[in-house]
């Protein structure tokens, strides 16, 4: 009986990290400015949701700022969504990203970042520095335009 309990206590889950990319490096879009990020994000965003519900996504970039992928972190309600820093960095680490660009939409059409948006950006930038993953920007987008915290000197 004691032997069974001991072996049951030492069982642990196996963790596997994998990232599958089916896009040739030369075909990946390159992000050199906020307008490039906006273009990539706008093309991938579900147009039926951009004015309806808030979503949070992360652009994952390699050292040459080529897009490794877009991670759809969360979908929320009309007034907000959850952006868990742990999940953002899990995606970045899985993709072996050197940089990330945070992004979410404001269904209201208001481009101004909230206090929570600014706090999250600051927290993510600090976390990225520890992991050697650059937080390059945080973009707020609407169906008509975008706001870049990097362009505005808020990063």
From TrEMBL:
PROSITE patterns: MPN, UPF0758. CDD domains: MPN_DUF2466. It comes from the Bacteria. Signal peptide: none annotated. Residues 30-155 form the MPN domain. Keywords: Hydrolase, Metal-binding, Metalloprotease, Protease, Zinc. It holds the Pfam family RadC. One of its GO terms (molecular function) is metallopeptidase activity. One of its GO terms (biological process) is proteolysis. InterPro entries: MPN, RadC_JAB, UPF0758, UPF0758_CS. This is DNA repair protein. It comes from Pontibacter mangrovi. The lineage of its organism: Bacteria, Pseudomonadati, Bacteroidota, Cytophagia, Cytophagales.
């Amino acid at each position: 009986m004691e032997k069974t309990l001991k072996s049951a206590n030492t069982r642990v889950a196996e963790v596997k990290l994998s990232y599958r990319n089916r896009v040739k490096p030369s075909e990946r879009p390159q992000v050199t400015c906020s307008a490039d990020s906006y273009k990539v994000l706008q093309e991938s965003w579900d147009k039926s949701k951009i004015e309806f519900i808030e979503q949070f996504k992360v652009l994952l970039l390699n050292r040459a700022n080529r897009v490794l992928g877009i991670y759809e972190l969360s979908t929320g309600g009309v007034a907000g969504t959850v952006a868990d820093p742990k999940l953002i960095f899990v995606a970045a680490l899985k993709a072996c990203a050197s940089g990330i660009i945070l992004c979410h939409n404001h269904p209201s059409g208001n481009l101004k970042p909230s206090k929570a948006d600014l706090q999250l950006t600051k927290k993510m930038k600090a976390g990225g520095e520890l992991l050697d993953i650059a937080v390059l920007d945080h973009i707020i987008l609407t169906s008509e335009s975008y706001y870049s915290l990097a362009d505005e000197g808020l990063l």
